[in-house]
Amino acid sequence: MEIGIKSEITTYSGGLGALAGDSIRSSADLKIPLVAVTLVSRRGYLKQKITDRGDQVEYPDSWDPSQFMRLASCTANVQIERRMVRIRAWRYDHLSATGGMVPVFFLDTDVEGNSPEDKGIADFLYGGDEAYRLKQEIVLGVGGVRILEALGFKIRKYHMNEGHSSLLTLELLKKYGGDANRVRDLCVFTTHTPVEAGFDRFSYDIVNKILCESFSIEVLKQYGGHDRLNMTMLAINLSKHINGVTKAHMEYSKKLFPGHRIRAVTNGVHSHQWTCRYLRELFDRHIPGWANEPELLVRVDEIPNEFVWNAHMRAKKDLIDLVNEKTGIGMDVDKLTIGYARRATGYKRGTLVFTDLERLKGMNRNGRIQLVFAGKAHPRDQTGKDIIREIYRKCSILKDEIKAVYLENYDMAMSAKLTSGSDVWLNTPMPPYEASGTSGMKAAHNGVLNFSVLDGWWIEGCIEDVTGWSIGPSFEEQHSEQERRTLELDDLYNKLKYVIIPKFYGKRDTWVDMMKNSIGKVAFYFNSHRMMHRYITEAYL
Length: 541
Description:
alpha/beta; four-stranded mixed beta sheet; 17% strand; globular
């Protein structure tokens, strides 16, 4: 549903879109014969403004596809509410320095002959009501298959990321005369959601009205659930290869979908894309070939500490300059800077660090820490908006003692600055709701140390006091919710006060050794080249 290929092409909302973009980048680097399909989302996800009170206000984040790509030569039709809706595709060719190329097709219904309502189906990413979302998923799933066929592509595997595109399985069932086993042989499904409430579901009243006679309702109920059409279940029932995005997410998904073989392909990020230019230059000199073989980053120990530190400080200055330019708060490049940026929603617990302000202030003698926050809430996520407002309020309360800011309109460009310019990357989700998380992987590529709850990818990446630090107990340990929260808060404040702050200011060489561990023991593995190798050998062949 979303792909983050360029910051200016606003067809992404967060980590899922950035991950899709990184999959494309690595596929091009590795010369994998892959084609990507998404919606044009010409009015974007949202442009975020935050008022002085911390209230999020949303505006369309419009972009013009003609400035970045060209129209493909073919169109396709899908039936929606007994109307034929015409789909065209914008083609963007992602080129790699290795000579590889991956075409990306952005599906668009703003086509002459379509009704005004139908012209807007592909306008807003994750916008509209239930009916609007189902129409989008018809365009993406059914329309995507038809566009690829019209363009002459011979598809060996269809890889669905989340359930948004799973209607393509119905199109394939129709094409192959209801042969479910043949469809399964063609389909790969990756679930990125660890909570059942996150799966797209549609009432059959709406499905009947919008899909009409296009597909048999009985077939939909057979594979997608009898009460409501569950798009994740539809994809799982008609895919041969099914995977979660970390080992922990795999285990949790097995509980949600018993009886299915679910594997794990842990996510990764594109190493060259998310490594700041100062470290890129350093790696180019000392670890030639690292960009296309990120596993070579294990050799980072050969680089002198002072070179790594100086490269980091240049990236940090870029971040602090950005923060001061946007807010005028006057942050200091020499102070320990803690970054936190992700979607604002309840389970991410963005306010956890502010739970005990007295403890937070007590460890900040002489202004030793500063905090930078960013992230958007979905327009209909009131809890997420309340979290932004609460962070704003706490930043204001602390203003005379701790410099803390919330940057508005978080995007890929800002993400790159935050994950390279922070000293510590904070992540405080409620386990087990973080399927993976990838911002910490980006931080690790830049030697930024992760300080995170043990959930998602960090369960695999954390070596305590070597690659970073954990917060609280593992999810497997049996604790009440209150006990867990108490343990997490004690860990957060105590490690910050007695381990992280003293090490940053008093043991520079030890700190830089940990930065190098972050690169050599984390980034070398948690990259999208390794991830795509796994998909090739385990899912695509």
